[in-house]
UniProtKB/TrEMBL annotation:
InterPro entries: DUF1272 (IPR010696). Residues 50-74 are annotated as: Disordered. This is DUF1272 domain-containing protein. Residues 50-63 have a biased composition (Basic and acidic residues). It comes from Novosphingobium endophyticum. It comes from the Bacteria.
Length: 74
């Protein structure tokens, strides 16, 4: 199951689990659409491809909560 990280690692933008617009690599490094485009859809951490992260319906939050750990180091 995906962690559904809450923010862009590059700019800190909020990326809610239920909203589109997040991009991830196979290690779940997470970026907003603008940063993914600026990075040419390549993860700066591992060199992997950034692809659209699926969304998670809010009704699943109680049983499978998205991560609250923010990765932006600003």
């Amino acid at each position: 199951m995906l962690e559904m990280r809450p923010d862009c690692e590059r700019c800190g933008a909020d990326l809610p689990a239920e909203a589109p617009g997040a991009f991830i690599c196979s290690f779940e490094c997470t970026f907003c659409a603008e940063c993914a485009e600026a990075l040419d859809d390549m993860c700066p951490n591992c060199g992997g491809e950034l692809t659209d992260r699926p969304t998670r319906a809010k009704k699943h939050d109680a049983a499978h909560p998205p991560s609250q750990v923010r990765r932006y180091k600003g």
